[in-house]
Amino acid sequence: MFTLFRLQPEAFGLDISDHSVKMCRLVKHRDEYRLNTFGEFSLPEGVIVEGEVKKDEELAKLLEEGMKSVQGKKLDTRYVVASLPEEKAFLQVLQLPKMKPEEVRQAILFEAENYIPYPLETVYLDYQIVSPFAARADDHFDVLIASWPRVMVDQYIGILRSARMNPLALEIESFAIARAVIPHEVSGTPVFLVDLGASRTGLSVYAGYSLQFTASAAVSSSDLTNAIAKTLQVSVEKAEKLKFDYGMAGSEQGKEVFDALIPSLTDLAEQIKKYIDYYETHALHQHLGKQKKAISKVFLCGGGAVMKGLPEFLSKQLNVKVQTGNPWVNIRPEQSKIIPPISFDDSLRYTTALGLALRGARAEENI
């Protein structure tokens, strides 16, 4: 698990993106977690652009004010597990020969220089040894490395502290998403994750006990809305409503919406195909066993995932099962009688925040 700080007290999850901020606080109750606190607010245009904070002071002020306007119980902790922008992260699975534990870090630093596109002294580097899913007698082991530019990480830490928050951990969005939607955080076959957000679509593969790689697609939920607005010559607000009322369901009333969305969603499907092909032909599979290379399913999450007919459309385009991810799967058991304070559709927007909050709630367990 990647961390810049050791987790100790319980913390809430903080998902910061270009257009909005979401907060969640989970509290352990017997054999499940309960969503005690949640909140969301929009960011003015230009505060964050493609993951880069352009207005530090304004963001810090908005974060501090946002803590006061949450729903549910008042946030009684200043400790936070926050997301880092995916656009600036680098992630890679390496293979290293068997060696003594004290030799591992030096070997990783040596190998990382061949992959990370920046001088090592300019980044924060973290890693975890990936446990093999299938028993093997290989003479090597897999290591997942991740890095972020020091300037960016230091900036985010400074902003959080200015907002009177205590950052306990910072992590890539994909890690939080996988923690939320992969049952028990383990998958015997590779699963492709699609996070259809307002400004970008995050793509990643999870297999065994770990992420394998991450990428981004230029098509976003906002792009889909704008395509409808332009084609049908309606306002953005009207287009947003039409997108979720009709989507890709193929109804007679929604045919114009369907036709407006086809070019962008076909482009998204092609980009997903490209990364699926890359994983299946180039990525490491040894930890899963030789017969488990193919992507078994695709999980959709993010605010755009609730669009009608989208899973069916992508299933046909990709020729693989596509379904909406369940961000509650590791938070509450199926037999739970506790109804979350937000609907399932709304919770898809909170997938990253819920994954971050789950890590924060597990802090005292040293997970």
TrEMBL record:
Question: What's the superkingdom here?
Answer: Bacteria
Q: What is this protein called?
A: SHS2 domain-containing protein
**Which InterPro entries does the record match to this protein?**
ATPase_NBD, FtsA/MreB, PilM
Q: Which Pfam families match?
A: PilM_2
Please state the span of the N-terminal signal peptide per the UniProt entry: none
